[in-house]
Amino acid sequence: MSIQSVDVKYTAVATAENGRDGRVSTDDGKLDVVVNAPKELGGSGEGTNPEQLFAAGYSACFQSALGVVARKEKADITGSTVTARVGIGALANGGFGLKVALEARIPGVDEATARELLEKAHQVCPYSNATRGNIEVDLAVV
Description:
The protein is α+β, with helices and mostly antiparallel strands. It has three helices and six strands; from the N terminus they run E-E-E-H-E-E-H-H-E. The strands form two sheets. It has a three-stranded antiparallel β-sheet, with no helix packed on it. Strands 4-5-6 form a three-stranded mixed β-sheet. Helix 1 packs across helix 2 (111-124). It is globular. It starts with 13 loop residues before the first strand and ends with a strand.
């Protein structure tokens, strides 16, 4: 798989202090959160964590990609939602890895159409394109 060139239109900038037990903020001040490792990973669980931030970003981005595809396919996805579940755990060869489950609820669209829309959105979404071939991403219609 070759690296594709991107015509960048926007760049987000965030800075972390003290890793999983610190703070993350964006250069424009719109995001400024305390981060702590979750209790399941031995942390306090008091703040948010990188996996929650990734899940929030991925679900929002995928929902937008779903909208792009739906408009192109002339499908009505009014009232739809996308939930991202991001898991973290040890890799067999050392280090840590992520696993994602994307669950879409699309009222008023039959399951076969919804599944087709999800597959197409998965090809459009920048998060999906960034993670493809690196982590397991499961798609589900709920």
